[in-house]
Amino acid sequence: MDELAKALGICLRGPQRQSALVTLARQLETWQLRMPAVEPLVLDFGLGEFYKTGLIEYWIANEIAAGYCGKFLFLFDGQTCPRHHHRTKLETFFIVKGRVRMDYDGRRRELREGDALLVECGKPHEFSALGPALILEISKPCVVDDNYFADPRIPIGGNYRGAGP
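Above: the chain's sequence. Below: its structure in token form.
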């Protein structure tokens, strides 16, 4: 199955999605930025608490055969991408706009515009926006089953067992 299609399993739909995208468009206008012409993923990680645990992703490229991925990640003030790790995905985060609190490798740090952070395989991390924030992620390809979330309620990823026996 296509990785983008798998990611749709933890996305908002309907009026909530549209409202988030309208608010994002206003923020991008104040920053005088445009996002790529791709369909954004408005992720609530299946938890139903988008403005607490969620983000909006623009997948620029996810070239599994070529070995690279590029995404823009947008977070509203106070939003968190939940604690997780990857077994094979190496990531670099570059802060394009705003500030982000990053919990990584047992350390909490604040990243500002222009800062970059390499996140190594196997190391748990989570990040939260301190005001609206835009991050560029450059990484190995995004393979949904290589996300191992600490919160067992998240219905996707390598450690999700589903509702089966």
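The chain has a mean pLDDT of 93.
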